[in-house]
Amino acid sequence: MTDSTSTKPMRQRMEEYVNNLQEHIVTTFEKLDPDAPPFKRDSWIRTQGGSGRSCVFACPTGDEAGTKSHQSILEKAGVNISVVHGVLPPAAIRQMRADHTSMPLPDRPEGLPFFAAGISLVIHPRNPHAPTCHANYRYFEITEPVNDNTTSPKILAWWFGGGADLTPSYLYESDAKHFHTSIKNACDKHGTELYSSFKKWCDEYFLIQHRNETRGIGGLFFDDLNSGPHQRLSSDSGIKRPVTPDEVFAFVKEVGDSFTSSYIPILEARHTTPYTEHHRRWQLIRRGRYVEFNLIYDRGTKFGLMTPGARTESILMSLPETARWEYMSELGTEEGTEEAKLVQVLKEPRSWV
Amino acid sequence: MTDSTSTKPMRQRMEEYVNNLQEHIVTTFEKLDPDAPPFKRDSWIRTQGGSGRSCVFACPTGDEAGTKSHQSILEKAGVNISVVHGVLPPAAIRQMRADHTSMPLPDRPEGLPFFAAGISLVIHPRNPHAPTCHANYRYFEITEPVNDNTTSPKILAWWFGGGADLTPSYLYESDAKHFHTSIKNACDKHGTELYSSFKKWCDEYFLIQHRNETRGIGGLFFDDLNSGPHQRLSSDSGIKRPVTPDEVFAFVKEVGDSFTSSYIPILEARHTTPYTEHHRRWQLIRRGRYVEFNLIYDRGTKFGLMTPGARTESILMSLPETARWEYMSELGTEEGTEEAKLVQVLKEPRSWV
Fold it and tell me: Is B277 at the interface with chain A, CB within 8 A?
């Protein structure tokens, strides 16, 4: 019996999956740069229910310009998992119903139990030619209240969400193509319009509205994926898509598993590219934009920070080690430069495959 | 006839005031550091009505560690004024009524004309022992629509708002006392409870909720100050407070004028203090917290960025040149250190005078 048809509850299968994926991703990065310090593994308990493990890489050099000859490949990175549960009050249920159509009505004053398991990772390499990469996969469940711990509670609503996206400071079209092709291949095994729908969603989601530019060159973004109709997918039953819990989980695992093969070859190709202070300066400005998106628009970050008992350090591990803001910087505005070439695709997202 | 009893419309008096204050503050900083490049003066026009002038200091050194022996006193600074007008749609009126009790009902589908004039400044010195300082003073008016440009429109609602606050990386109690005393002296000429009420409001406003620490060591914060009752001021008519437009304007000018004497002596005392990479690192972490506050909580920034036609570069000039995020940094957590001494007062705001 393979895991994709397991009789175990989905919450347990997802928990095992994100545990294994975290370990696989972290050890992959550690093998890539054996001279760098290992990721710092940090387990935590949520007093309101659940736990998590943050694996964070940092290698402060005391040399902020980052131009030393011997450097770690990564500058800052976090690969976090969390498996939490508790009770969603009616107000939270009401708010979540906007994005999750299968969510029950908030008609029980005592709220409803929830369960959430997910992995979230952000990799900021040191070299300005190597792109930042983010990925996140999560499973969410709302159940009937149960008094008896031995019984599996009845699931009232469930969905998966996630995605992966690339944020370069300098555009290498071959990298963009490799990243998107890798994700598309993973998607195409599970449905014919998954890649095109969720690629578009990604471009829409990662928009820095006040700059009218996207955070990066996109990838995949999806939410609220379950057996029901989906706002971004055709309701035509002749078009293949994952429907059952097993099928949706198999799709999520496929894209989750594709992370290393989509990103590591890019990192391997770029981390030794020579760079100057000019490249570093632009990278830090781009990291400033990353901070702007995450703190102003990112739903996960906002939601996380507003949640009582949230672990701020884990949520904000997505922020780069350093970021830079220049008033009316000329970088990125001068036509024909490598910086302007990137800004161009951020202002007009392209098809890469 | 002094300006405080001028017959000119208040909008014109405030516009002249912020113009003069901007020039005074910018030239004061330029005289303080004659070897540094001048502020870059940048006038702009708002297509929907009005204009502004940004005066911004930047002196990129290409040396991010900032430990060179010859350095400009400031690292990044902006002193901006804007004088804008237009029409507030009913939805915006409705939203503003929450904070401004004198605001008319949003019962005209065509909205109502508004006028706003203000000065906003943020000074980030280079030396980690010299605190960042922010100040902002603004006048807002809602009027009857007029078709005839020669007539002064009837004012339906008006208020002043503003304040000033100090954000050190290292706590010098004498600096905190000087800054607060200077502001208190300015307040006390105009009312007996202005300083205590608005100092408290400042501590409440500049709270980084997800860190449970304030952005800095406070100062003054007020809004919605006009002739009507005020939520933060006693309604006892025996307690002196500014009431008429002339009186409120005189108070705002007094605190606005006190900016240079409240801050410049601190900057003069600290900008030559020797510092190490350790001090710089902590300063950059504190600047990261400044970014968190401004992007997540600051009403002016949020409101500004969401406004169509807003000038993003002027709004985000408040951000530091560089900021830093470390996962679970030990800085600030070790009892007895200078860093922990600062964190202590950010977690428990103190009385300084």
Answer: yes
The beta-carbon neighbor of A312 closest among B42, B211, B306 is B211
Q: Which of A316, A324, A328 sits opposite B322 (nearest CB)?
A: A324
Q: Which two tokens stand for residue A145?
A: 């209240």
> Residue range B39-53: average pLDDT?
93
pLDDT over 60 (residue A346): yes
In this prediction, residue B67 carries a pLDDT of: 46
Contact A313 B328 (CB under 8 A): yes
Instruction: Give the single-character DSSP code of B119.
Output: E
Residues of B in Cβ contact (< 8 Å) with A283: none
- Write the CA distances from A306 to A292, A311, B130, B208, integer angstroms: 17, 10, 32, 11
Nearest-neighbour CA in chain B from A194: distance (Å): 32
Instruction: Inform me whether the C-beta atom of residue A68 falls under 8 Å from chain B C-beta atoms.
Output: no
**Closest Cβ–Cβ partner in B313, B315, B321 for A324:** B321
Query: Which CATH number does A10-59+71-347 carry?
Result: 3.40.1500.10
Instruction: Provide, as residue numbers in chain B, all residues whose Cβ is less than 8 Å from the Cβ of A65.
Output: 62-65
Q: What percentage of chain B exceeds 70 in pLDDT?
A: 95
Chain A residue numbers touching B296 (CB-CB < 8 A): 295-296, 302, 305
Q: What is the Cα Rg of chain B in Å?
A: 21
Contact call for B296 and A291, based on CB within 8 A: no
Pairwise CB contact (< 8 Å): B56 & A327: yes
Q: Give pLDDT, residue B309.
A: 75
Chain A interface includes B91 (CB < 8 A): no
Question: B198: helix, coil or strand?
Answer: helix
For the question of an ipTM over 0.85, the answer is yes
Distance separating alpha carbons of residues B25 and B264, to the nearest angstrom: 10
Q: Is residue A64 within 8 Å of residue A322, measured between CB atoms?
A: yes
Q: How distant is the Cα of B305 from the closest Cα of chain A, in angstroms?
A: 6
Distance of CA A231 to the CA centre of its chain: 21
Q: Hey, what amino acid is at A163?
A: G
Whether the Cβ atoms of residue B141 and residue B11 lie closer than 8 Å to each other:
yes
Both ends of chain B: CA-CA distance in Å?
A: 35
- Hey, which residues 139-198 in chain A have their CB within 8 Å of chain B? none
Average pLDDT, chain B: 93
- Confidence category of residue B237, pLDDT binned at 50, 70, 90: confident
What is the distance in angstroms between the Cα of A325 and the nearest Cα belonging to chain B?
5
A305/chain B closest Cα distance in angstroms: 6
Half-sphere exposure of B141 (CA within 13 A, CB side): 24
For residue A2, what pLDDT is reported? 47
